[in-house]
């Protein structure tokens, strides 16, 4: 407990200590800002799956005695739609990301909604070191002790877990001939794409939604992420962009005045006085996650939000009744992200609760997942700043006494010149990206070959395609999903005809 908490606290604190330049250690994948009450709302939903545990091996890659230790890996399964083993009906597997698998399953409506048509078995596998899938006796405090235990938390181990579990499950179901399709969003999408490339004998294809597999050092610019956020707001309204851009200096100036912190506290309805860097980070978070989840329908992924939340924020900022009061404008914008339920009496800006158990990302972001996102050009909506690998390395040294391996991911999975590398290697991957998503700058945005396909939605945000459908869905979104379904159908029918030609 102590370590987990200290880490979160430090994580929050480091972001702030580098003045206004908000150098996040981890990329802004789902934050720690989801309120616990949202979880219980989800939990009371109808049952979507059964929960099962599988005895998984600690270390797939060497044979020393400790590597034979095991842990209980959680997976969720729904066989209500499955055509069955005798029909070789397909198996849809979600390759879990950096958090509680139930949260990802409950946000991946695409699999539930397409399963009846495909007669698919649904399986959602939790990533090791997250949720209930804790090595070292299932105790998070022990699993997160230090590098000696956390050392087993890596993407390659996770992929090997998925391969082992899927193979075993198919054997248990006598479904060895059923084709497996893997699905994932965000880091889970990266895992899905890599799984298809590394384990083509276990999965016939991958839908990798908003998976920034190119967001690594010297492949994608560190300015890309914030450029996209800036563009999202600027394309809504120039004045909105200007107000936000100008506000950072005004906040700093006010904080430096006698009684300034009190002015800020009142302007932003903050519960209790906190360092100004907390306020900046709090606003930064609201803008970043609103851009990420700028969905065309109301949503409740990170926080409850109205449809087109960036537009709503800019509407609050451009609201004539706020006159020239920058803080009133910014408060109005923050209120969209933090108080769309209308139930907040004041804002707890130093809240570091982690209801979805995402804190393990700090370790991943300090070892292999060096994803440069913190740079800001002069045009950025945030204060101009550079991203330096050395800053990340020194935080990681401090937090975990560890040195990152910034080139490992691109060595292991590729990334540089990916179009050339995959053009004549690999097949059956869909890369979906919505261009309003700040992560899309590190996504695959061009078709690589006939079967490694990029689907790009100008108006889309972070893995919007995987979300539950709703009556208000736009035509382009329905169209994206239709394309994805058709491509997956092709993979499956090709698999069945190959199986006739090459029976096992
Ligand atoms: C599978 O999901 C559907 C909702 O899509 C639900 O109605 C059904 O009860 C679930 N089945 C199981 C076995 O959990
Ligand atoms: C991790 O903690 C354990 C128990 O306190 C200790 O024995 C071990 O040496 C530590 N490992 C590292 C790499 O610090
Ligand atoms: C397969 O069955 C064995 C024996 O019941 C069980 O121990 C194992 O956990 C099962 N595998 C999976 C993936 O559920
Ligand atoms: C990235 O590129 C810079 C400049 O081209 C080079 O100095 C640096 O060594 C490269 N870094 C890595 C990790 O390859
Ligand atoms: C902003 O409003 C205040 C109070 O209404 C006024 O005194 C000030 O001149 C205005 N400033 C600008 C730049 O319009
Ligand atoms: C949250 O919204 C409600 C309803 O609009 C409002 O009454 C309340 O003051 C807001 N809370 C904060 C902290 O601004
Ligand atoms: C990739 O090819 C498909 C047709 O196979 C097309 O629908 C899609 O628009 C192409 N993607 C891009 C980014 O050009």
Automatic annotation (TrEMBL):
Q: Which InterPro entries match?
A: AB_hydrolase_fold (IPR029058), Peptidase_S28 (IPR008758), Ser_carbopepase_S28_SKS (IPR042269)
Q: Where is the signal peptide?
A: 1-19
The Gene Ontology biological process annotation of the record reads: proteolysis
Family indicated by similarity: Belongs to the peptidase S28 family.
Q: Which organism is it from?
A: Carya illinoinensis
Know the name of this protein? Lysosomal Pro-X carboxypeptidase
**SUPFAM superfamilies in the cross-refs:** alpha/beta-Hydrolases (SSF53474)
Membrane spanning stretches: none
- Molecular function (GO) terms listed? dipeptidyl-peptidase activity; serine-type exopeptidase activity
The organism's taxonomic lineage, starting at the top: Eukaryota, Viridiplantae, Streptophyta, Embryophyta, Tracheophyta
Q: Which UniProt keywords apply?
A: Glycoprotein, Hydrolase, Protease, Signal
């Amino acid at each position: 407990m102590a370590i987990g908490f200290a880490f979160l606290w430090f994580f929050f604190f480091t972001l702030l200590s580098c003045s206004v330049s908000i150098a996040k250690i981890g990329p802004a994948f789902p934050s720690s800002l989801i309120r616990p009450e949202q979880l219980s709302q989800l939990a009371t939903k109808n049952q979507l799956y059964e929960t099962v545990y599988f005895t998984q091996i600690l270390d797939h890659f060497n044979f020393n005695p400790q590597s034979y230790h095991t842990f209980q890996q959680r997976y969720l399964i729904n066989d209500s739609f499955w055509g069955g083993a005798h029909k070789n009906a397909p198996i849809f597997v979600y390759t879990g990301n950096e958090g509680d698998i139930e949260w990802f399953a409950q946000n991946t409506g695409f699999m539930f909604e397409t399963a009846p048509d495909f007669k698919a078995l649904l399986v959602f596998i939790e990533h090791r070191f997250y949720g209930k899938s804790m090595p070292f006796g299932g105790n998070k405090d022990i699993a997160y002790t230090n590098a000696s235990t956390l050392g087993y938390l890596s993407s390659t181990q996770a992929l090997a877990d998925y391969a082992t579990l899927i193979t075993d499950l198919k054997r248990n179901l006598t479904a060895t001939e059923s084709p497996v399709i893997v699905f994932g969003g965000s880091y889970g999408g990266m895992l899905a794409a890599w799984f298809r490339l590394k384990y083509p004998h276990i999965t016939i294809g991958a839908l990798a939604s908003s998976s920034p597999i190119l967001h690594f050092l010297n492949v994608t610019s560190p300015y890309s992420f914030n450029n996209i956020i800036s563009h999202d707001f600027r394309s809504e309204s120039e004045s909105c962009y200007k107000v936000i851009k100008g506000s950072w200096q005004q906040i700093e100036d006010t904080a430096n005045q006698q009684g300034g912190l009190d002015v800020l506290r009142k302007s932003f309805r903050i519960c209790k006085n906190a360092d100004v860097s907390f306020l900046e980070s709090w606003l930064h978070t609201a803008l970043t996650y609103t851009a990420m989840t700028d969905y065309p329908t109301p949503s409740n992924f990170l926080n409850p939000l109205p449809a087109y939340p960036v537009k709503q924020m800019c509407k609050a900022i451009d609201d004539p009744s706020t006159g020239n009061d920058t803080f009133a404008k910014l408060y109005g914008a923050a209120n969209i992200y933090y108080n769309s339920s209308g139930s907040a009496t004041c804002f707890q800006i130093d809240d570091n609760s982690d209801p979805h158990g995402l804190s393990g990302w700090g370790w991943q972001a300090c070892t292999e997942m060096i994803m440069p996102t913190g740079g800001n050009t002069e045009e950025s909506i945030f204060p101009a700043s550079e991203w330096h690998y050395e800053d990340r390395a020194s935080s990681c040294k401090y937090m975990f006494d560890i040195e990152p391996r910034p080139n490992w991911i691109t060595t292991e999975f590729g990334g540089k010149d990916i179009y050339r590398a995959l053009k004549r290697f690999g097949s059956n991957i869909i890369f979906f990206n919505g261009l309003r998503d700040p992560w899309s700058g590190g996504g695959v945005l061009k078709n690589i070959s006939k079967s490694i396909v990029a689907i790009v939605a100008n108006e889309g945000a972070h893995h919007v395609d995987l979300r539950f459908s709703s009556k208000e869905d736009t035509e382009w979104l329905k169209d994206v999903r239709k394309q994805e379904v058709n491509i997956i159908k092709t993979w499956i029918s090709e698999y069945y005809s190959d199986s006739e030609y090459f029976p096992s």
